[in-house]
């Protein structure tokens, strides 16, 4: 690339600046695509260093993104991104380059593909393994509507393809008439290093290059000679099988499922990818293109440590120094996930029955702390939340005490397993529900808004939420006794307010809360870390002469009926506060109790409203939902005004 294309004074000479849509991209000669890829990487390094996001994944998928939009007629042809971590380049090419400074901010563009944002975002992405099923649905819909030929492509990573839903989609694709293309972006990473036998299998496929290369070259020669047609595909497949028997000893997994396989190819050779995509674009039947890539490609620090650079926060683009690596002289409260990880290790050292389970998130949940010290007792099952829960059920059935750490929004995928494989048998499985509540910039697919509501309906389930780090430790100690069946402990992303948190642990009385302050004007019932916001609101209102009783409920199920009876006896209005949905949450439990026992107090329920909340900082979103100190004070005033 010339120096001209890199200088700020001459940004207009950049190829990227000429592209407002993929139609502009397709006007470029194919020889210009490597330069465009380099410019996209420069842009991402510059913008993500000051406005953080999912960096390494998008850096690794640049060539795939450019080639797909170059070869396919998007948006008529459909690109379906799995998870969406890798879609920043896609956003730049589809008219959102000028708004990329707003990425993951309140009122800005989403960090994930969002159909309401762009016609090029064909399906909501945020959770892994859904792309193949969704893309297959689109391909079949197009066929049933007898539309002009439409290509549908699912782009999925090697970690996501190990998920059960992905294989359900592959199984159906193999037995349903369709022209689906699956692009397998194989970088040997998810957020952490991949695990499992499928990962090993994909690595082995690269050792079969002789057969794959010869087969592909033969196909291209026959196609140029017009000796290959879709009608003759059966004879070609039989030729492939004969060739395979000479060169390799085992059948390709995907071809065994009737998915034609191409690759592996270098996923950073954009010109080669364009050629291969052009060759296979008009084939009939399901196909899989296997591309090997490097997560973080083009930025040395990210290539060296892709897990750390998955979402690195702000960084210096020249040195690679991350802002979060700077050490402060002031002691800082730990993240709740770190308290969970450290406490779990303490408990596990004292009780050999305790085991840890995570679904591809050992560092994100801090299960890595126990994994480093007691590796034989920690199990990373990959992107398989349902399996994680049922696996825990099997362990618990035979005497172990599993702790399953999964993000709140990801645990939704295992709902049936919680009911059928744990709760029905009342098994002592503890669920560490990380990232509960409003998670901030990741937006609607990642907010942990629904866990209280979806777990409240499950018999035998204990649901708790600590207001602080010490209570988290006490709840884990209580769950580790194994006396209470399935036990959910939900806690937020990030740090609380407690610096000295390593106190002795105590067993808590299940179903009992605590009174923080007393008063007769209004009763404020909180659960979880919104307790601190409510305390601030109550202190502010005290200056106005409002005397509020404040209760930290700790448990949503079973809920403390002694506290509820005490509150009902006051005859004052009640304000409930939670960082979950107001529909079916803790406030609903309080209202149910009052109705069933013949009380009719004024109840104001504060929480996440009945809609999907977009991205923004946690502080902004708490303000938006009215569960910060100001919003809680306003809610108390509302309750008092109508009492």
In short:
This protein is an alpha/beta fold and 643 residues long.
Judged by helices, strands and strand pairing, the structural class is alpha/beta
Number of helices: 25
- Rg, nearest Å: 27 Å
Physical arrangement of strands within the biggest beta sheet = 7-6-8-9-11-10-15
Shape: globular
The main β sheet shows up as:
7 strands, mixed
* Average of per-residue pLDDT values: 89
Structure commentary:
This protein is of the alpha/beta class and 643 residues long. It is 39% helix and 14% strand. The protein is built from 25 helices and 17 strands. The strands form 3 sheets. It has a 7-stranded mixed sheet with strand order 7-6-8-9-11-10-15, with helices on both faces. Strands 1-2-3-5-4 form a 5-stranded parallel sheet, with helices on both faces. Strand 6, helix 15 (368-373) and strand 7 form a beta-alpha-beta unit. The longest helix is centred in the N-terminal third of the chain and has 18 residues, at 33-50. The radius of gyration is 27 Å and the shape is globular. Residues 1-11 and 241-249 have low confidence and may be disordered.
